[in-house]
Amino acid sequence: MLYVVLSVICSVSVGILLKLAKKKHYSFYQIISINYIIAWGLTQLMYQPQLKTQLSSSTSSIIIALSILLPVIFVFQAKAIKYSGIVKTDIAQRMSLFLSLLFSFFIAKEIFGIYKWIGILLAFVAIFLTFYRKNDAELTKNNKWHFLPLVLLGFGVIDILFKKVASLQELQFTEVLFLVFPGALFVSLIISIYYLIKGKESFNPINILWGIGVGILNFGNISLYIKAHQALSSNPSTVFASMNMGVIVLGSLVGIMVFKEKVNRWNYLGILLSLLAIGFISYSQLK
């Protein structure tokens, strides 16, 4: 579970940097592009993977899918926040856990014990309670609601693909990342250039510094997440659920203590249930 905890810390830290960057009106897309350059460089520096070009069609498909989905999901997330608000977007992202658990149960054929079922049930209740708002100005009505299911589907598929990466026999996960990051960089550059050409954004050197910070943390998040799946290869649902609940708990605490976000009693109950969910899921590993 140590890998999960460290991955959660990196994931929440990425969110903090992106939230601060948004407040300062820095380019979200330029930061993401720089992030993949740094992540690619760190993969080479830390692991020195061997570049392999002769790959099976299934492995190639996973690499191509991740190269496209990783940067594109950032776009969907930004659009969903813009049109539907942060609360609904967070719910959609965390509900991607449902797709991950379906994969664990029906595809990976994982056997769920009673304690894990209790933890999963508590997790879903916690998701709704943690992000519940009686009144929220951000939840405006519009016809751009389709970005929400795209966020849910995108994050769910990415989680499943990372599980597949952890179980690959053909390549080590470091070799996969060494191929995925430049692909994601290429896609993110296309998006950044589009916004520059359209005049919606302008280049700012400060985005490079923010991109370096996000890249270091994103590299840590992804590599530790895959290591968690490798360490708990027979229990992918434990990684999926613990990761989501961990992000909710730590993210909520940061929001309350650092960004002074308003929290009601239902939100606090959701955070408490998240901790209980993690406890039950972790305890199921001992049984």
From TrEMBL:
<dbReference type="InterPro" id="IPR037185">
    <property type="entry name" value="EmrE-like"/>
</dbReference>
<feature type="transmembrane region" description="Helical">
    <location>
        <begin position="208"/>
        <end position="226"/>
    </location>
</feature>
<feature type="transmembrane region" description="Helical">
    <location>
        <begin position="59"/>
        <end position="79"/>
    </location>
</feature>
<feature type="transmembrane region" description="Helical">
    <location>
        <begin position="6"/>
        <end position="21"/>
    </location>
</feature>
<feature type="transmembrane region" description="Helical">
    <location>
        <begin position="177"/>
        <end position="196"/>
    </location>
</feature>
<feature type="transmembrane region" description="Helical">
    <location>
        <begin position="28"/>
        <end position="47"/>
    </location>
</feature>
<feature type="domain" description="EamA">
    <location>
        <begin position="2"/>
        <end position="131"/>
    </location>
</feature>
<feature type="transmembrane region" description="Helical">
    <location>
        <begin position="266"/>
        <end position="286"/>
    </location>
</feature>
<keyword id="KW-0472">Membrane</keyword>
<feature type="transmembrane region" description="Helical">
    <location>
        <begin position="114"/>
        <end position="133"/>
    </location>
</feature>
<keyword id="KW-1133">Transmembrane helix</keyword>
<feature type="domain" description="EamA">
    <location>
        <begin position="153"/>
        <end position="282"/>
    </location>
</feature>
<dbReference type="Pfam" id="PF00892">
    <property type="entry name" value="EamA"/>
</dbReference>
<dbReference type="InterPro" id="IPR000620">
    <property type="entry name" value="EamA_dom"/>
</dbReference>
<feature type="transmembrane region" description="Helical">
    <location>
        <begin position="91"/>
        <end position="108"/>
    </location>
</feature>
<keyword id="KW-0812">Transmembrane</keyword>
<protein>
    <submittedName>
        <fullName>EamA family transporter</fullName>
    </submittedName>
</protein>
<feature type="transmembrane region" description="Helical">
    <location>
        <begin position="145"/>
        <end position="162"/>
    </location>
</feature>
<feature type="transmembrane region" description="Helical">
    <location>
        <begin position="238"/>
        <end position="259"/>
    </location>
</feature>
